[in-house]
Amino acid sequence: MSSSNVTPHQASTTSSADGQQVSLQLNDGTQIPQFGLGVYKTPADETAEIVRYAAKAGYKMVDTASFYGNESGVGDALQDFPDLYAVTKLWAADLGYDKAMRAFDESARKLRRDVVDLYLIHWPMPKTGLTAESWKALIELKNEGRIRSIGVCNFQPAHLTQLIEETGVKPVLNQIELHPSFQQKELRAFNESLDIRTEAWSPLGRGAGLDGEIVTSIAKKHGKTPGQVTLRWHLELGNIVIPKSANPKRLDENLDVFDFRLDEDDMQRIATLDRADGRTGPDPDTAEF
Ligand SMILES: NC(=O)c1ccc[n+]([C@@H]2O[C@H](COP(=O)([O-])OP(=O)(O)OC[C@H]3O[C@@H](n4cnc5c(N)ncnc54)[C@H](OP(=O)(O)O)[C@@H]3O)[C@@H](O)[C@H]2O)c1
């Protein structure tokens, strides 16, 4: 990846409006594209075609997981687009040192990658007591050069603190549910205090709320769509963002967010959409799979 357009880690506003995508610096010295494609619920037999379409359109990252059942499709597309930054995840049922090692082998085989750019623990599963030893497997795989960067998903502050205390190694990022109805201000600040990037999953809230008055009126003002305003809001906050679409028109629409900025008034209005009960996914403290 080119080192141009790399934004230093602590900058809170990170994405330019000159049509260019940026990469962000991670705490292990590597870089990650700020914008990518999510493929949760993308049908396995359509995944290769969709990822190829996205890569041709200009997407630089793809986010999958063993749980999604479509890593092989992503792997097919990676054959044609070897520079695509590839992310996959260790599923909850595969926690434990040996199981994590085997699960990574399987994911890397399906992705057909000798080196995976980013490997994430999918859920903390604190009750299993297996999180730290799983993390040690990821550390070992990184030391062997089979993973460039290691991170986590759905970690609350206590999970991050315990992981770092037990292993001494920080995740590069924490991928969490984050959208205008659930803005995660405290967790974003906690991540940043540890030099851990925040990545937003369900950045569009899976489409819910895109027809609300505030986002719709901001979209009209900028000549953009509600989805584009929502993605731009993430970029203004400095979040890494991975919207999912299996529709070519929306794949193009979602990528077209690098030629405008939201102003302070737009940001303040979207801030009012935050809801304490806005979480749609499982609670990381109690989730069981
Ligand atoms: N770590 C975790 O625990 C975790 C959990 C969930 C998700 N994720 C990751 O995050 C990615 C994104 O999250 P997500 O898939 O849950 O939700 P999302 O990206 O917020 O929303 C995807 C949904 O919105 C629709 N959509 C896409 N673009 C749109 C637009 N411009 N306007 C209106 N609707 C639009 C899509 O439909 P079409 O496909 O028909 O366009 C799809 O139904 C996932 O794919 C996955 O990679 C991670």
Short description:
The chain has 289 residues and is an alpha/beta fold. It has ten helices and eleven strands.
Features:
289 residues, alpha/beta, TIM Barrel, 3-stranded mixed β-sheet, 10 helices, binds NADP nicotinamide-adenine-dinucleotide phosphate
Structure characterization notes:
The protein is α/β, with parallel strands linked by helices and 289 residues long. The chain has a single domain, classed as TIM Barrel. The strands form two sheets. The protein has an eight-stranded parallel sheet. Strands 1-2-3 form a three-stranded mixed sheet, with no helix packed on it. α1 runs parallel beside α2, α3 crosses α4 and α4 packs across α5. The longest helix has 15 residues. The protein is globular, with a radius of gyration of 18 Å. About 2% of the residues have low confidence.
| Ligands bound, unique | NADP nicotinamide-adenine-dinucleotide phosphate
Structural class: alpha/beta
Count of helix runs = 10
Evaluate the radius of gyration: 18 Å
Q: CATH top level?
A: Alpha Beta
Helix content: 25-40%
Shape: globular
Order of helices and strands: EEEEHEHEHEHEHEHEHHEHH
Q: What CATH architecture would you give? A: Alpha-Beta Barrel
Number of domains: 1
Low-confidence stretches: 8-13
Quick one: how many beta strands?
11
| Spatial strand sequence of the major β-sheet | 4-5-6-7-8-9-10-11
- In round numbers, the mean pLDDT is 95
User: How big a fraction of the residues is strand?
Assistant: 15-25%
CATH topology (level 3) name: TIM Barrel
Largest sheet: 8 strands, parallel
Termini distance?
36 Å
What's the CATH H-level homologous superfamily?
NADP-dependent oxidoreductase domain
